[in-house]
Design brief:
Layout lengths: L1 E9 L5 H18 L2 E6 L3 E8 L1 H12 L4 E11 L11 E4 L2 H10 L11 H10 L8 H4 L1
Parallel strand pairs: 2-5
Antiparallel strand pairs: 1-3, 1-4, 2-3
Bound molecules: flavin mononucleotide.
The site of flavin mononucleotide (FMN) has 15 residues, from helix 1, strand 3 and helix 2.
């Protein structure tokens, strides 16, 4: 299995309803491929981790990379893994709420800008922010 982490910048504003739809679709499609992971969106930038068999993760990533809703994609890390770190969800979500801003501050991460984010910081964000089944209206509004 591999674990792939990438970051990107939203190419335009992504509203709450669209984010909910995107996540529901991702969960359905990833389930069909046995891919699990987590998506974080702070209103400007995305950070996402994908885990699963190499062929499946590559297929999903290349599909995502063609999505015009984001740009300046940066693969932050790819590694072989024995076990999944994000096994609970085919795609969990975490937003950057007031509460989670404190987590980012504690981690010393000023922004999710993919051009600034280290692989280590991206994984810390995805690991430490609470996983949600879907976005919270207040965060994505
Ligand atoms: C930030 C972001 C993350 C996405 N994550 C996934 C994902 O994990 N799995 C997935 O199948 N599609 C994901 N998508 C959506 C795909 O890019 C694509 O729109 C969707 O799979 C529908 O593709 P289709 O119309 O070719 O079927 C994501 C899109 C964006 C912008």
């Amino acid at each position: 299995m591999i674990q792939l982490v990438y970051g990107s910048r939203a190419s335009r504003p992504v509203r709450f309803a669209e984010l909910c739809k995107l996540l529901a679709l991702a969960q359905r499609k990833n389930a069909a491929r046995g891919v699990t992971g987590k998506l974080c969106f702070d209103g400007k930038c995305f950070v996402q981790v994908l885990e699963g068999d190499r062929d499946d993760v590559n297929a999903v990533y290349h599909h995502i990379a063609r999505d015009p809703r984001h740009q300046e994609l940066q693969i932050l890390s790819v590694c072989e893994v024995e076990v999944r770190s994000f096994a609970e969800w085919h795609m969990a979500y975490c937003g950057v709420s007031e509460a989670s801003k404190a987590v980012l501050e504690r981690l010393g991460i000023p922004s999710l800008d993919p051009l600034e984010l280290s692989a280590e910081a991206a994984l810390a964000v995805l690991t430490d922010l609470p996983s949600l089944a879907k976005p919270e209206a207040v965060e994505a509004a």
